[in-house]
């Protein structure tokens, strides 16, 4: 500091030799006079700040904030002021030093001189106002926030009872208790007319929003389609654009209820019996779904020989329809079906006559040329005919 210029190189002016830190600061700067008078005894203007709190420090505390070893023009205080270092009797008495800085708004006028109820000396801004203290003291939001109240219908109806929707801990995400409005004879439209969608469904529903929506959870509305059905409304009247354009839906037409249920639209159950009576075969819709293995290639389009429309899986192959496996014919599949890729192909030679040439000769002698189709003449022990049918030509 310029006042110390003459002492800049004269250590002994402030320090005693070999005596450690001296008390010489206070020989000029009396703690009781700091901020009130200068070292010459002249009274300082009040705008300079009457820092009377220095009187609470001892003589060795100066270096906590000040230093004079940085040339002729250092800042008067070398460090940020630490309020925690203040004496206990004035530590939380902000007004003692900052009376002129106190805002003049209603909130600060009400709070009095207890700044610490909202502010922290380490971080003054971003104060956290504990509204619960105001509520406990009978304070209403309106007493401070009257100018901030929105002018829409909803807030005009609510009056000054902000707590009916808002919470002081989370003001923005207000929850409107619609039950109070409804008991007062208010409908959704009285406040939300501009918010009503203009699609066909909402036009049909009219002003009765509660048929689908719940005031506690507006989204994920559940449409009670039974009421629409009772009113003679079909699905297509609202969902025509949603109707798939595949073959199955084109055949079904507008009768969605033949497969779908309004309570659980997905997991539709197709009543195939209607297609059967209409002369439709499985292949007409499911050609792309037919497996390409040997067994399915042989069965052709007659899916019902193994499958049922009421429960497609598990399929049941009725072997007795082709050849009954009883008596001596209780054998494994590979005994007769040696080609696993083509179950239509079979042979009886593994158990019966092992010489194909002898079989051929005996059948040709009888005029039977199709001698490889054994079961056409030789059935199992079911009591059906077993013998010769003659020439197949």
What secondary-structure arrangement, pairings included, does this model have?
Blueprint: H1 25-28, H2 95-98, H3 106-111, H4 131-136, H5 142-145, H6 153-158, H7 178-183, H8 188-192, H9 200-205, H10 225-230, H11 236-239, H12 247-252, H13 273-277, H14 283-286, H15 294-299, H16 333-336, H17 356-365
Key features of this structure:
23% helix; mainly alpha; 17 helices; single chain; 0% strand; disordered C terminus; 393 residues
Query: Could you describe the largest sheet, including whether it forms a barrel?
Result: none
What's the helix count?
A: 17
Q: Roughly how many Å apart are the termini?
A: 132 Å
Rg (CA only) = 50 Å
Beta strand %: under 5%
Helix content: 10-25%
Structural class: mainly alpha
Q: Could you give the count of β-strands?
A: 0
Shape: elongated
What is the mean predicted local confidence, pLDDT? Answer: 75
Helix/strand order: HHHHHHHHHHHHHHHHH
Contiguous uncertain segments of 5+ residues: 385-393
